[in-house]
Amino acid sequence: MTSTRRRKVGIAGAIVGAASAGVAAGAFAKRYAIGRIRLRPDPEASEPLGELRGRQATVVTSDGAALHAEVDGPEDSPLTVVLCHGYTLNLDSWHYQRRDLRDYHRLVLWDQRSHGRSSRTGADNSTIDRLGEDLFEVLQELVPGPCVLVGHSMGGMTIMALADRHPELFGDKVKGVALISTSAGKLAEVSLGLPALLSKAVHKVTPGTVSILGRRGSLVDKGRHAANDVAFLVLRYLGFGDSRNVSPTVVDFVESMIRSTPFEVIANFYPALMSHDKLSALDVLDDVPTSIVVGDDDWLTPVEHSKAIAAALPRARLTEVPDSSHLVQLERPGAVNDALRDLLKRVAVDIQE
């Protein structure tokens, strides 16, 4: 069975059978699968994931949210790279990009509202448009000169919302954009690798289920913390394109970020992700060099979504990274960093001209 087929079967199984995972599955995972995986050589075992730090900053938004941010790299750099993380993650998800770029470029990393060390806000303010306005205020506060915006997943949607709300920034202050594993819309139509009828059923049931569970978020969170071994296995299998060879240290790192995001926050943002539609805003990005990066086995924001963005941006460069999935910036950081360096070179040429 191919890896793609296995993942499709795994997704279906995870959705249909999650409620019956039980104590036995957790015990099996802990005794057997987890033990075997962790005994394998892990080249990332000594990588200081989540330990890189910069100069701390707080941006208080117009609606009172306190956004945690960090400024890294040389202050005299002519260009600032602003990194916008994805759904359920935090600014540490950019570890490899920060590590490789911080010696040469000024970096601004920030936790999106209700994520990481930023303050929690309610469901009414958990929208993509509000995230776009948050990014606008981060740029005003922490980015005095020209910049390049980099967004993964929901972070890419944040950049699109900024383009929709503040198109005047692009070409003037914003000199380039990288969109990684993201979508301009129609996520509610994504099949998740499931057969058509089952996919429709899942999309019909999921919003209500997420909403109900969100109202019992504290109880769900207790269960999530208790079942972290099972979560490790599920994330390793579904979140990475090459699940057999992905570093257990990296999987642990991602799982801890997701687990630290309260389920109430996950539920609050879920409707915004499903209703997101910013295809009409993409023409704003055509004014600046743009890079689009996607894993070739991404089941959450499939390759077709990145290709749709590329079709709307004829001058953009599309990179499909082999044997990788939605967390491509952590799974294949070298390929992502190469695409970012290429983008920064193009931006530098444009600035000089």
Automatic annotation (TrEMBL):
| Superkingdom of the organism of origin | Bacteria
AB hydrolase-1 domain: residues covered: 80-333
Write down a Pfam family by its short name: Abhydrolase_1
- Species this chain originates from: Planobispora takensis
What's this protein's name? Lipase
Gene Ontology molecular function: catalytic activity
